[in-house]
Amino acid sequence: MTPREKREAAERLFVGPYGVLAAASKGRPRPEPDHDDIRTCFQRDVDRITHSKSFRRLKHKTQVFLQPEGDHYRTRLTHTLEVSRIARTIARALDLNEDLTEAIALGHDLGHTPFGHAGERALDVINPHGFKHNEQSLRVVDRVEKDGEGLNLCYETRMGILSHTSGAPDDTLEAKAVRLADRIAYINHDADDAIRAGIVRPEELPKVVRERIGERHSLRINAILRDIIRWSPIDGIAMSPQMAEAVEVFHGFMFQAVYINPVAKGEEHKVEDILRGIWQYYVNHPDKLPPEYQAIAEEDGLERAVCDYVSGMTDKYAMYQFGEIFIPAAWQVR
Question: Which of 16, 116, 135, 286 can pair with 95 through a Cys bridge, CB separation 3.0 to 4.6 Å?
């Protein structure tokens, strides 16, 4: 047996009846010859995502805080890695497919904008067709990556990426694990970063959060995971009513104390002006788009191509582009 065949045989033993077997995948948009004798199809999805340019750019995209002073604040990349680890823990404990879970988790934010959710809100206003980062994440893996070829991922990976924000009727449990892990990760690490930044103090966390979930970052994640693993039914994923209530209070607190906090978000009003300026420039000068985006414009329309280009920028590159376009360069007397 090849390594892939051994892995597929092992999956039939450790992936439960409600998990997805790699050998039973619904396949890829463009059929490929099954010549890989080392990796399953979901393992190949993981590798395609981690070797993509859009994945590497996540390290320079905002998670919550714009331009934080310090090296220890989360970025979109570290958020993605934390989601992946939490989701894989859930998947392993509940006998789901870890490779599929990891692929969905690593790809779920590939379409996120520069400047975090402020950038997403700005592009939703600027783009005539609106903007949602989960839909853009699917478009990145289907259309934008590999100079317009896309990554040609498995159906289950693609649908898990698309539905990571709100779910879909045909969700796999692996997709549900990632959706839950995403929320667990961001409310906990955003709280950790907010405490580090001095925006909130540990004792300001609601009493129900401190008592039911925990006083420290690691204790909170461990408590939520234990609760999920203990309370999930055989054919689903769930929290206990008590933990679900505490997590909902936690999320509400974070929204009021951090996500709309004028100190933490004081600079976000500038984001729309930056992205709108860049957007309008490339709409008016399509010949300035990189060649791969000009090719997309020819097939999918100019506004679609500009949206792909601008949403894929890192924070630093977006500011560099804005400066190149709108700030006069220094000149020298010779």
Answer: 16
